[in-house]
Every structure is written in structure tokens, then in C-alpha cells.
Amino acid sequence: MPNSTKASTTLVNRRFSVAPMMDWTDRYCRYFHRLLSRNTLLYTEMVTTGALIHGDVHRHLHYHDIEHPIALQLGGSDPKALAQSVQIANKYQYDEINLNCGCPSDRVQSGKFGAVLMKDPELVAQCFSAMQNATETPITIKHRIGVDEQEGYQSLCDFVGTIAKAGCKTFIVHARKAWLQGLSPKQNRDVPPLQYEQVFQLKRDFPQLEIIINGGINSLEQTETLLSSVDGVMMGREAYQNPYILAEVDQKIYHDQQPIPSRLQVLEQFSEIIEKELSKGIKLSHMTRHILGLYQGVPGARKFRRHISENAHRHDAGIEVLFQALNDMNTSYTQRDF
Ligand SMILES: Cc1cc2nc3c(=O)[nH]c(=O)nc-3n(C[C@H](O)[C@H](O)[C@H](O)COP(=O)(O)O)c2cc1C
User: Ligand 1 pocket, 22 CB below 6 A?
Assistant: First the structure.
């Protein structure tokens, strides 16, 4: 497919995405999210260049066809290793490949990638070029508004400007700074204040770029409001903890008139993959941990959650744990109802 067609297809998809989240957005999570929304762009967990070059490629990169549109997030800072990783990933046909310049964990800093890269925009531009030269798939950058002593808008503007000059068209901006010393990764997602205005300013200064905002977004009403200032919204924790929010994304954000799936319809479809994977020896809890928040806000949600949390990890746990969780909510479900 020519690059321009590819870019315009994904531009539509990037209006709404679920953030890359280590240990959370694995292939079962993405499969489940896809049953809730056909259009939302889904990100993998971060995969490091070392893991791809020296590890089990198929384990890290394979996914189910249903997951499209899907973006792979890479972590690294060596242009050659990143280009090699992109080449390895090419055969898996991701819709986008993203470079992580926003993660502040110690492990990531010692490898000199993640948020620390915000201090070296020239290196990120080299990484971008090496990656983009290795593929026709759009390469995007996810970053913070700054790190450590970087104050104000100028360093952010210089960072984006330098990488845009190398040809990058899409920037996903987590609208808070990261402190590389003194705050844990979790604190770095909550403590530094959100500064959406800096992201809006980027869009005004670089109208030709696609600017996606991320951080603290927890409703589709807020999403719609933000879309009047930027090109797309990325949602992380809210989508994971309250996944049924995704069920309205197609209608509200993409104006797709397909009916909204019920929670039960989603579970019915998810149970099909669960049964297949159980037969391959995958543990039930690996899959059901992602659905614990499905009934958030609905009477009986705690019973549903508790039954799955207490039972799905047992070595012989099967699909009946899911039916029993539904029964615990005072609704009589049997396999036939599915
Ligand atoms: C458990 C967890 C793991 C995360 N892992 C990654 C990651 O691998 N790569 C990345 O760029 N961001 C990662 N993030 C950050 C999210 O992508 C997102 O930027 C952040 O949570 C802010 O968005 P939110 O307020 O909507 O959650 C992670 C966040 C969480 C909660």
C-alpha cells in the first residue's frame, strides 16, 4: 500500500486509542477491547529492541487478526537496533510503530531510553529516521511535555520541531512532565500536574502535524471537547479499569452507527477465545484479569469481580468461573445463554 493511503487510514483511527501499558495491554486485553470497539487504535505493551533482537520474536509480536488497527510500541535508543527491530516487526504488519520517549522507570533509564530521550531530540530524530527508513508503516513518537529541569513550553516545542524536521508526522503527548529521580513510575503518572494547554499550543504551532493528547482523560464527553483542540485522544487507565467505556466510542467518536454491544454479548464472544486458549494450556486468570472492571458502576459488580479474582487463578479453573461470576450477580446464566 502506498505510504500516503496508509497514513490517511490510520489518521482516522488515531482519533481515539488505548494507551500502551506494560503488563496490562497484552494480546488478551486487546482482543477484549476490540470486542468493545471496532475503530479504537490499540497499542501493545512496550517491547525493547533487546527483547526483539535476542529474544523470542513470535512471543513478543504475534497477535490475533481481530486486533487491527494495532500499533506496536518499541523501546530503545540505538538507531541501528531500532531499525533492525522495525525490520523484524515488518512481517507482522502492524498499522503503526511507536517509539517510547515517555517512560520514566529506572530499568528503562539505565538502558537510556524512554523519557530520558527527551533530553536528546537529535538522537530521537536519528532514531525516527532509521525506523522510518526501514518500513512503510507510519512511525510515531510518544513523549512527555518535559523531564526534570525542562520548564515551560520551549524545550517541548524544540523537541517536536527537531523530530518533525526528520519527517515525523504524529506525536502522542502525555501532558505532564516526568521526574527521572525521586518519583516512582506510578507517581510520575499522577504527581506532576497535567498541562493540556502546552499540547494545544503544539497543535497551534504545528498545524500540519497530528497531535494526540494523553493523560488523565476519563470520559467520552471530555474526549469530544479535547478533539476540538487536537487530532486525537489516547486513554490509558480509565479504559483498562472501566472497559465498558469503549463500547460507546464507535458511535460517539467515530459516528459509526453499529449497535453498541451489551456486556453479555462481549463476554459471549470473549468466552470463545477463552475456551480455545484454555485448551492450549493458557491459565484462565491470564485472560479474565482484563475483564474485572467490565461491570463497573452496575449493581453486583463487586461480586463479579470478587468471584473471578478468587477463582480464576486455580490451576483447574475453566470457563464455568465466568458463568458463576455472572450468577453471583443474581442473574441466572448458563452456557446456553451465551
Ligand atoms: C500499568 C501501566 C503501564 C504503562 N506502561 C507504559 C508503556 O509500556 N509505554 C508507555 O509509553 N506508557 C506506559 N504507561 C503510560 C500510559 O501509556 C499513559 O501514558 C499514562 O497512563 C497516562 O494516561 P492515563 O492517565 O489515561 O492513564 C503505562 C501506564 C500504566 C498505568
Answer: yes
Q: What is the pLDDT of residues 176-215, one digit of tens each?
A: 999 988 899 999 999 999 999 999 999 999 999 999 999 9
Nearest CA to ligand 1 atom 14: 21
What average pLDDT is seen over the chain?
92
Q: Does residue 100's CB lie within 6 angstroms of at least one atom of ligand 1? A: yes
List the domain boundaries for the chain.
11-252, 263-337
Ligand 1 center–CA 94 separation, angstroms: 20
Enumerate the β-bridge partners of residue 233. Answer: 16, 213
- Is residue 276 predicted with pLDDT exceeding 60? yes
**What number of other Cβ atoms are within 10 A of residue 280's Cβ?**
6
Are both 11-252 and 263-337 of the same fold? Answer: no
DSSP string, 161-218: HHHHHTT--EEEEESS-B-SSSS-TTGGGTSSPP-HHHHHHHHHH-TTSEEEEESS--
Ligand 1 centroid distance, CA of 189 (Å): 8
Query: 320 C-alpha vs ligand 1 centroid, how far in Å?
Result: 32
CATH superfamily of 11-252: Aldolase class I (3.20.20.70)
138 pLDDT exceeds 50?
A: yes
Summarize pLDDT for 279-318 with one digit per residue, the tens: 999 999 999 999 999 999 999 999 999 999 999 999 999 9
Give me the pLDDT at residue 338, please.
52
For residue 42, what is its C-alpha cell? 490499540
| CATH number listed for the domain at residues 263-337 | 1.20.120.1460
Band the pLDDT of 8: cuts 50, 70, 90.
Answer: very low
* Size of the chain in residues: 338
Q: Which atom of ligand 1 lies nearest, measured to the CA of 237?
A: 27
Where does the chain show beta strands of DSSP type E?
16-18, 41-48, 70-75, 96-101, 139-144, 170-174, 210-214, 232-235
Please tell me the distance between residue 20's alpha carbon and the centre of ligand 1 in angstroms.
6
Q: Catalytic site residues?
A: 103
Pocket test for ligand 1, best of 17, 18, 21 (most atoms within 8 A of CB): 21
